[in-house]
């Protein structure tokens, strides 16, 4: 195994109401809506991307909002918890902010770190952790001071139906390094400053059920198109049924389901989210790939209106 992913590229989840989704992730958490587009596999549904000011890999959480989606059940075969990093000394600010905005949160510990855990309006499980790594936010939404703002991903907790297999894939296929165990988890680390730590519970989890409030897939980083081709070969050589490479306009992607049931994607860092919008205008209007432009009127008529002006 010669390749090592730098870490998490993005995490994609299911939601219901797109406006409620924007209000929470931009208005409450202060992330920037960096791209308002559609699910390329289902063009009558939004695909909303939130991240740092530039939409850098390692900061991007994305959503497919289905207004009539069933409620999902978090469990095996999913990312169980998505971790965001905040600056050291920012935890009290976030405890107070979430309480003020009516978001119930609790503290827990793992690997000697304190985590503030809570859920979004659809029940997606999230947590904040203080760490030094990662650049401070260039700007924020929701009136959050830059010195307190979310930097990007800290990592994720993977809920596996076969935790031993998932851990082997992290180490032997993706190139993560196992850096420790505590009473309940194993921790794996990659090379990036953000999206670099993955925790796996040391037990097999019962299967979850897909729906609002659950993660669809987690994407790992590839440097470029050449690296991406190598990752596809590596996945196939390790017995996974990797999809052909598909163009997602802002990155190229391939997918395979690892043996613990979790859908993995490998996504290229380039070309990025400024390929069809000016950097200062990211997320301001509905962007369609060229192959859907001829259907714009029909597509827009089937989408709920969304304003990117956050209420907080």
The CATH architecture category equals Roll
What spatial form do the alpha-carbon principal axes imply? Answer: globular
End-to-end Cα distance, whole Å, is 47 Å
Radius of gyration: 18 Å
Number of E-state strands: 16
Looking across the biggest beta sheet, what order are the strands in?
A: 2-3-4-1-13-16-15-14
Q: What is the number of independent domains?
A: 1
Name the beta content range.
25-35%
Helix content: 10-25%
Main sheet attributes: strand count, strand direction, barrel closure: 8 strands, mixed
Taking pLDDT < 50 over at least 5 consecutive residues as the criterion, the unreliable ranges are none
**Count of separate DSSP helical elements:** 5
What do we call the CATH topology? 2,3-Dihydroxybiphenyl 1,2-Dioxygenase, domain 1
Could you give me the name of the CATH homologous superfamily? 2,3-Dihydroxybiphenyl 1,2-Dioxygenase, domain 1
* Sheet/helix structural class: alpha+beta
Protein name: Glyoxalase family protein
Domain VOC: 7-131, 152-269
Pfam family, one: Glyoxalase
InterPro entries: Extradiol_RC_dioxygenase, Glyas_Bleomycin-R_OHBP_Dase, Glyas_Fos-R_dOase_dom, VOC_core
Description:
By secondary structure, this protein is α+β, with helices and mostly antiparallel strands. It has one domain (8-301): 2,3-Dihydroxybiphenyl 1,2-Dioxygenase, domain 1, CATH 3.10.180. Helix content is 16%, strand content 34%. The protein contains 5 helices and 16 strands. It has helices at 18-28, 91-100, 163-173, 225-237, 296-301, and strands at residues 8-15, 32-39, 42-51, 60-65, 78-86, 105-110, 113-119, 125-130, 152-159, 177-181, 185-189, 197-201, 215-222, 246-247, 252-257, 263-268. An 8-stranded mixed sheet has the order 2-3-4-1-13-16-15-14. The protein has an 8-stranded mixed sheet with strand order 6-7-8-5-9-12-11-10, with helices on one face. Strand 2 and strand 3 form a beta hairpin. It comes from Paenibacillus methanolicus.
């Amino acid at each position: 195994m010669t390749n090592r992913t730098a870490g998490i590229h993005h995490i994609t989840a299911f939601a219901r109401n797109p406006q409620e989704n924007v209000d929470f992730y931009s208005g409450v958490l202060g992330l920037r809506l960096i791209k308002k587009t559609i699910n390329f596999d289902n063009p009558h549904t939004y695909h909303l991307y939130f991240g740092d000011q530039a939409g850098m890999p390692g900061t991007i959480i994305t959503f497919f909002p289905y207004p009539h989606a069933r409620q999902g059940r978090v469990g095996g075969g999913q990312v169980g918890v998505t971790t965001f990093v905040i600056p050291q000394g920012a935890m009290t600010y976030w405890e107070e902010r979430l309480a003020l905005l009516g978001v119930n949160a609790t503290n827990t510990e793992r690997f000697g770190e304190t985590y503030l855990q809570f859920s979004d309006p659809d029940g997606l499980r999230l947590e904040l952790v203080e760490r030094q790594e990662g650049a401070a936010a260039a700007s924020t939404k929701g009136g959050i001071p830059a010195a307190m703002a979310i930097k990007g991903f800290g990592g994720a907790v993977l809920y596996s139906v076969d935790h031993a297999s998932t851990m082997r894939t992290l180490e032997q296929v993706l190139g993560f390094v196992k850096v420790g165990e505590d009473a309940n988890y194993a921790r794996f680390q990659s090379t990036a400053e953000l999206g670099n730590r993955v925790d796996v519970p040391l037990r097999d989890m019962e299967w979850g059920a897909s729906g609002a409030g659950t993660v669809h897939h987690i994407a790992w980083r590839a440097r470029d198109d050449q690296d991406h081709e190598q990752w596809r070969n590596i996945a196939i050589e390790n017995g996974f049924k990797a999809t052909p490479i598909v163009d997602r306009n802002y990155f190229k992607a391939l997918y395979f389901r690892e043996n613990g049931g979790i859908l993995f994607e490998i996504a290229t860092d380039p070309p990025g989210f400024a390929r069809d919008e000016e950097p200062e205008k990211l997320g301001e209007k509905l962007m369609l790939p060229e192959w859907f432009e001829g259907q714009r009127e029909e597509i827009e008529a089937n989408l709920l209106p969304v304003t990117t002006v956050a209420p907080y």
